[in-house]
Structures are given as structure tokens and as C-alpha cells.
Write a sequence for this structure.
């Protein structure tokens, strides 16, 4: 008993417990999205440069897991030492599989280098080669140009003899020539080139020179060397240095005025004694040396003591040594066959000095010789300024042990050494070094083989002359620019590469409109000479087209260059017009008629194809025709056939759809009346009777004669006469009328049914014949009814309406005015 109820209660309590636990147990959120930064979308380069204090960059955040992601982008600006300068945070939600572009701006960029870092936090994805959750960039804000002379204490004075060779004296003595090393400082991030004026006064002698072509790279300095040509006189001398028109806006640090004292010429006397300290060595081991320096003169020695071991400098030390004093200097060499040579410099020495002094050293070692030519080969020519030449030489070790060797080349600017090549005994190999050709003309390149653990045979050094041509000229030219209604803008271009070697060139073609836009950008290998082509830019909204040519991995004569040319402003000018007269001139409703339309291009360029649409006043479409492209100044006549609509005057509109526009013209045409009443029609009796007078008389006589032959009493009757009176006396108005149409203009005319002869249309003046519609008996009765007077028809002449060219026929003797039935223009028949 109670078993089921108890079970139900337990079950209910369990479910309640589960429900209560669910209220207190933390809910597990659904997994977030996978957001990362698209590396290719970062607008900053790894080393960005700017001359502005404000920097804006952007990047794309991509969700790749198909679930929206909540992220926060934290961007910081730090100094190169890690000090935080500015920061920016932006939080957003990236929808599933979505992309959102974030933009960051820092407005207080310091001069010099700083670090920008952006890091995502929130629902992030994994870093890959193309996507990442953070990035950093180095940014350099360029410092404006700031040129200055070095402080007075940094200007170096050198004592020279009359040949311009350093005397070694620390101070300038009487009879010495003055040598100067003048530091020019550039504290900005832009290179500078200019000149300096040097004014030297000593005793009664004075010298003033202008030193040109001084170049100082950004954030660096250079030493300007100048040697005076006048001898110095003991006593006070003055020196004024002036930078000319530096352009940095601050001349306060561009002038230096110095006073100096010229001393008498005391000379030290040096004695050098080198001694080897090490014992027990083999080739390649380090050897310790001592150099004893004695000053046996009467003057302090202040200069440099330098020693070379073979062709390697092993000691270069500044030494100040009082008169009658000595000093010991130590240095190290590597054990190899060579000659140790020590010397002193920096001031003039007494001729009693034993400088320079040399000691030969020998040891078992590698010995290197040329394995082919005794001179290096020079590869990669011909050469132009800024090209590189590769010096290559085959060498062999014919010594007793393994050793290493290298090829060293020296230019007027620098020393270039190949990587060391280690060779076993009797082994051979190649040593090579790349040397840039920085000057034009024949360049003297000094070369030698160098080794640290062996010796080099005699003669493996020398000088090679490398001919260096001027930089090749790269000249882009926009030859011609045309505009065409079908293709738009087309440019003919050419690029001229100066005489020399084939070069890789980047060509860019586009247009300029508040900035340059390039539609074509590619790299091509150009041969010397002219390369040309044609490029269609299409229908662009621009002022000029642009061609830019830049050297790729070489330097052209005048730097990157471009050329542009204006786009022609001439365009087609269209017009359309109706011929004022239809054909026929007054069509009848329902009749087939034609109207003529003329289209014209009065512009200076060929137009486009189009379409002409003919519509009525109620927008009824009557016809359409395509139009061909019209040449400049050309016109085309178009005829449209249509079934003439109802109405006494019919209005038509022609719409010419061309080049995205619609050009229209409208005209109104007079229609023919559907029916002409008796009052409106006047039979031209003169014309009719004149043409049939003779035939009518003959017919009447024949009828009378026939009647006489049929009746016995006819012989007693007299035949009727036809009197040639000036006016007809017929009662035609009482006869039955019929309706006929003019075969020329289709106008409807009403004439007596019994009339036979010619009729003239009052609209178009066309004359045509009319046959009678009566029976033979009626004709006979009509002839016998009354006598008629017939007017002889006067000869007509044809005249043309001066307004619409409609032809009319008038009596030859008529000299009055005539009204044109087509356009109702009144004019003199004979003008």
C-alpha cells in the first residue's frame, strides 16, 4: 500500500532537487567565435615612414569559426625604449564568418622611431601564417632638414708640408700649410647638398675658396677636407667657415669664426724597436709582440704608431710621447710568413728617426698562388654608374698545410673583401667579391689576395681599370591622346632607354584627376632604344593621362620620371530635324505616307551608333531605325513610312537615342480633307475644254450625223454647231457628281459623272485624265442637250515654290502672285 504514491513523491522530489541545483550551478556559455587579424589587410609596412605627427592605419578582423565573436582591439604607441606614449581600445562583435575593418589613429607621433602594437582579446582564433591575433610595426617620423657646422672643438687642423703631405706636427708651425677637416652635421631625416666658403688669413697672406658639392645624408655627418695653399706665418691667424644657403631656415649654426696660433716648428725624433714575445708556435697561432718607442728629439711626439703584418694592419694606436721619453706598445699577429713593418705618423719627424722599421717572420704555412690568370676576372659588364662588378679569381694552395685565403678590392670609397676560402694542400678554388661602381669614368680598383694563416706569392696584387659609363637615361613620353565615342580615351606611349644594357623597368599607365590612378602596372625588360605601344583607358573622368617608368634594381640618370598629356575636350555634337513637307505633301488619313528626318554631327570627333524613334502626339510608336556613327560634320537623311493618322494636322516627334542621351525634334504636318464638296471644287474649264475642244466638236458632229441617218426626217434638220465662245454654258452643277483621287497626292476630287477630259489638282497642280461614268445614251443626250462654248487652253509653264520646292504649273503669260498648295507660301510666278 502506498507504494506507487511514494514512488511518485520521490520522483517529484528528485526533479525538484535537480531544478534547484540548476539555479545555483553556473551555466556554461556557448563557445565563442574565432577572430583573427588578416595579415594582408594591415595597412602599415614593417618599417613605416611619415613626416606627419598624425598616423592612421587599418586592419581587417575575420571570424572563421561560423560563430559571432566578441573582441577588443588594444593599440599602443610606444617609444623605441618601450615608454607608452598613447593607446586606443575598440570593442566590437564580429558576426559569424564576417569581416570588420578597424581603424586606429595616433595624433602625437614623436620624431624618430616608435613602436605601434595592436593586440586582440576576447573570442580569438589560432595564429597562422596568414592570420594572427596581434602585430607590431616600427614607425619613423622624419625630422625636418637641420644643417649645421660642427662646434669649434670638432674642427680638426692638420700640419702639411709644401707638397700637401702631413708633417706629423700636432700644432701648426711656421712654414706649414693648414689642412682642415670640417664636420658638417645633418640632424634631419632629409639629405642635403650645398657649398661652403672658407676664408683664411695668416700674416699678410689671405686665401678664400668656395667648396661645392658637399653632400650630407640624413641623420649623419660628413667631414669636409680642405688644404690651404698659402704658408702659415708664426703668430695669430683667423679662419671663417660659412655654409651657403642651407635652406633649413636657421643660419645661426652655419658660421664658425676661429682664431689660431701658428707655432715655430719643433720636431720629435723617434726610434722604433719591435720584439716577438711568444715561443713555440705553428702557422695560424697567435703571436705576441712588443714595440719600444723612444723619443730622442726635443719636441713632444703626438701622433699614431701603426704596424702592418704583411698587408694586414695589426697596430694603429695614438701615442703622446714627451721628448727624451719612451713607451712600450703591445699587439698580436697570426703566425704566417710575412714582414712586420712599423711606422709613425701624425706629425713631422726629425730625419734622424729610424721610421719605418721592418722585421721578416717565417713559419711553415699554406702558400697561395694563382690557379689561372694572374689577375682577377671582372664579370657583369658593361657597367654604368651604380652597377656592380664581380671580381673573381682561381687560387691554389701549394704550401705545406691547409689555409684560408680571400680576395680584397679597394675603391676610392671603401674596401670590399670576399668570404674566406679554406683550401687543403694542392687544392684550388674560386674567391669572388662584388664591388659597386659609384663613379663615372675609368675606375682604378686595387686588388690583392689576403690570408691570415699563410702567405701569398709575389705579384698577386695590382690595379684593374674598370670603365664605367654614365647612368642610362630612362625617358617615358605620352606621344598622343585621343578620345573616341566607341572606346573612350586611348594613349600612344613610348619609353626610351639610353645606350647600354637591357634593364628591368616598372611601367605604370593611368590618369590624373586630383591624384594619380594607375590602370596598368607591370615590370618589363627593356632593350636600349625606343619601346612604344597603345593603351585604351576607356571612358574615364580625368584631366590628363599619365605614364610612369621606374628603374627596378638599378639607377637611371635622372631618377624616377613620368610624363602626362591632357585628354582632348572635343566631343560629338548631335542635332536632329524634320523635313517640313511630307510625301505626299498632304496625306489622307489611312494613306501610306513618308516623312524625312535629318541627323547631324557638327562636333570635331566621330560619334556613336544610336537609334531614331518616330512617335505621334499621343506617344504612338510609328517606326524605329538604327543610326551609324557619324563622322565630324557629317549628316544622314532618314525616310520613315507610316500609315497616316487621323486629324487635319498631324504632330510627329523624332527621338534620337545616342551616347546615353536623347535628342528630339517635333513637326506638324497638314493632312488632306477626307471629302471635297462641290463648292470647294472648281472645274478648270479652260484647261479641260481647251484640251478636248476639237474632240468634242468632232464627237458632236458624228452624233448628229448618226441621228440623221436613223430618222427619215433627219435630213431636214440642221446639225448643231459648237461655238468657240470664251465661256462654257453647261449646267454641270446639276449633273450627278462622282469622287476621284489625284494620283499624285491622293486628294479626293468630285467631278461630273459624264465628264471626259483633263483635271488639275488644286493641291499639287498635277494634271490627269478623267473618263466619263455615263451610259452611251446619256452621253448622246448630253452632247445634244446644249451647245457649249470651249475655251482654248493656254500653254502652261512649271515653277517651283522657293520655300518647299513644290512644283506648280501656271499659264505662260501669267505674271501675278501664286499661293503654294503645299506650304501656302505666296510668291511671284515670274521673279
Amino acid at each position: 500500500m502506498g507504494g506507487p504514491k511514494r514512488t511518485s513523491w520521490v520522483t517529484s522530489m528528485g526533479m525538484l532537487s535537480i531544478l534547484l541545483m540548476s539555479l545555483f550551478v553556473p551555466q556554461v556559455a556557448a563557445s565563442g567565435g574565432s577572430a583573427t587579424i588578416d595579415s594582408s589587410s594591415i595597412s602599415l609596412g614593417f618599417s613605416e615612414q611619415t613626416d606627419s605627427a598624425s598616423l592612421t592605419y587599418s586592419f581587417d578582423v575575420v571570424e572563421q569559426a561560423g560563430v559571432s565573436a566578441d573582441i577588443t582591439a588594444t593599440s599602443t604607441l610606444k617609444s623605441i625604449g618601450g615608454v607608452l606614449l598613447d593607446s586606443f581600445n575598440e570593442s566590437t562583435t564580429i558576426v559569424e564568418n564576417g569581416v570588420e575593418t578597424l581603424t586606429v589613429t595616433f595624433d602625437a607621433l614623436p620624431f624618430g622611431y616608435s613602436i605601434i602594437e595592436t593586440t586582440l582579446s576576447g573570442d580569438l582564433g589560432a595564429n597562422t601564417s596568414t592570420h594572427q591575433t596581434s602585430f607590431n610595426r616600427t614607425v619613423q617620423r622624419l625630422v625636418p632638414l637641420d644643417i649645421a657646422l660642427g662646434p669649434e672643438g670638432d674642427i680638426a687642423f692638420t700640419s702639411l708640408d709644401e707638397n700637401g703631405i702631413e708633417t706629423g706636427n700636432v700644432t701648426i708651425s711656421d712654414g706649414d700649410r693648414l689642412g682642415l677637416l670640417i664636420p658638417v652635421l645633418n640632424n634631419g631625416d632629409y639629405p642635403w647638398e650645398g657649398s661652403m666658403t672658407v676664408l683664411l688669413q695668416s700674416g699678410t697672406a689671405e686665401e678664400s675658396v668656395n667648396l661645392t658639392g658637399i653632400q650630407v645624408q640624413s641623420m649623419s655627418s660628413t667631414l669636409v677636407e680642405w688644404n690651404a695653399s698659402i704658408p702659415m706665418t708664426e703668430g695669430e691667424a683667423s679662419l671663417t667657415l660659412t655654409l651657403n644657403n642651407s635652406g633649413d631656415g636657421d643660419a645661426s649654426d652655419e658660421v664658425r669664426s676661429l682664431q689660431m696660433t701658428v707655432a715655430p716648428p719643433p720636431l720629435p725624433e723617434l726610434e722604433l724597436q719591435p720584439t716577438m714575445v711568444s715561443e713555440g708556435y705553428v702557422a695560424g697561432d697567435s703571436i705576441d709582440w712588443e714595440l719600444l718607442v723612444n723619443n730622442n728629439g726635443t719636441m713632444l711626439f703626438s701622433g699614431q704608431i701603426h704596424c702592418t703584418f704583411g698587408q694586414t694592419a695589426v697596430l694603429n694606436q695614438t701615442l703622446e710621447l714627451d721628448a727624451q721619453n719612451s713607451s712600450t706598445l703591445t699587439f698580436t699577429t697570426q703566425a704566417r710568413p710575412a714582414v712586420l713593418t712599423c711606422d709613425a705618423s701624425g706629425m713631422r719627424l726629425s730625419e734622424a728617426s729610424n721610421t719605418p722599421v721592418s722585421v721578416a717572420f717565417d713559419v711553415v704555412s699554406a702558400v697561395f698562388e694563382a690557379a689561372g690568370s694572374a689577375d682577377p676576372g671582372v664579370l657583369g659588364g658593361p657597367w654604368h654608374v651604380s652597377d656592380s662588378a664581380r671580381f673573381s679569381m682561381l687560387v691554389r694552395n701549394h704550401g705545406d698545410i691547409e689555409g684560408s685565403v680571400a680576395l680584397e678590392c679597394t675603391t676610392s670609397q671603401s674596401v670590399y673583401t670576399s668570404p674566406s676560402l679554406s683550401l687543403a694542400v694542392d687544392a684550388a678554388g674560386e674567391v669572388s667579391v662584388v664591388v659597386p661602381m659609384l663613379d663615372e669614368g675609368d675606375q682604378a680598383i686595387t686588388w690583392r689576395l689576403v690570408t691570415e694563416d699563410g702567405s701569398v706569392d709575389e705579384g698577386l696584387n695590382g690595379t684593374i681599370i674598370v670603365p664605367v659609363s654614365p647612368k642610362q637615361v630612362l625617358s617615358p613620353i605620352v606621344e598622343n591622346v585621343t578620345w573616341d565615342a566607341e572606346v573612350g580615351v586611348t594613349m600612344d606611349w613610348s619609353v626610351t632607354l639610353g645606350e647600354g644594357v637591357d634593364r628591368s623597368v616598372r611601367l605604370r599607365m593611368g590618369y590624373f584627376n586630383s591624384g594619380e590612378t594607375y590602370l596598368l602596372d607591370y615590370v618589363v625588360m627593356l632593350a636600349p632604344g625606343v619601346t612604344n605601344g597603345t593603351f585604351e583607358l576607356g571612358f574615364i573622368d580625368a584631366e590628363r593621362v599619365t605614364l610612369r617608368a621606374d628603374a627596378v634594381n638599378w639607377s637611371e640618370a635622372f631618377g624616377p620620371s613620368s610624363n602626362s598629356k591632357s585628354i582632348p575636350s572635343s566631343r560629338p555634337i548631335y542635332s536632329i530635324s524634320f523635313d517640313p513637307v511630307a510625301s505626299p505633301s498632304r496625306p489622307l488619313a489611312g494613306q501610306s505616307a513618308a516623312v524625312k528626318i535629318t541627323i547631324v554631327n557638327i562636333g570635331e570627333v566621330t560619334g556613336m551608333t544610336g537609334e531614331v524613334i518616330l512617335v505621334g502626339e499621343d506617344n504612338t510608336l510609328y517606326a524605329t531605325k538604327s543610326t551609324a556613327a557619324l563622322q565630324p560634320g557629317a549628316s544622314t537623311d532618314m525616310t520613315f513610312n507610316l500609315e497616316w493618322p487621323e486629324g487635319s494636322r498631324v504632330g510627329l516627334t523624332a527621338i534620337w537615342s545616342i551616347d546615353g542621351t536623347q535628342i528630339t525634334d517635333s513637326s506638324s504636318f497638314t493632312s488632306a480633307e477626307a471629302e471635297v464638296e462641290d463648292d470647294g471644287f472648281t472645274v478648270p474649264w479652260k484647261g479641260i475644254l481647251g484640251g478636248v475642244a476639237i474632240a468634242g466638236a468632232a464627237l458632236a458632229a458624228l452624233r448628229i450625223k448618226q441621228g440623221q441617218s436613223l430618222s427619215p426626217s433627219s435630213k431636214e434638220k440642221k446639225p448643231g454647231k459648237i461655238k468657240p465662245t470664251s465661256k462654257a454654258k453647261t449646267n454641270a452643277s446639276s449633273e450627278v457628281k462622282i469622287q476621284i483621287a489625284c494620283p499624285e497626292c491622293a486628294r479626293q476630287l468630285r467631278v461630273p459623272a459624264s465628264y471626259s477630259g483633263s483635271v488639275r489638282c488644286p493641291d499639287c497642280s498635277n494634271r490627269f485624265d478623267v473618263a466619263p461614268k455615263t451610259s452611251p445614251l446619256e452621253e448622246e443626250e448630253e452632247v445634244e442637250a446644249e451647245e457649249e462654248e470651249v475655251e482654248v487652253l493656254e500653254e502652261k509653264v512649271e515653277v517651283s515654290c522657293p520655300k518647299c520646292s513644290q512644283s506648280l504649273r501656271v499659264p505662260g503669260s501669267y505674271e501675278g502672285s501664286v499661293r503654294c498648295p503645299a506650304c501656302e507660301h505666296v510668291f511671284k510666278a515670274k521673279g
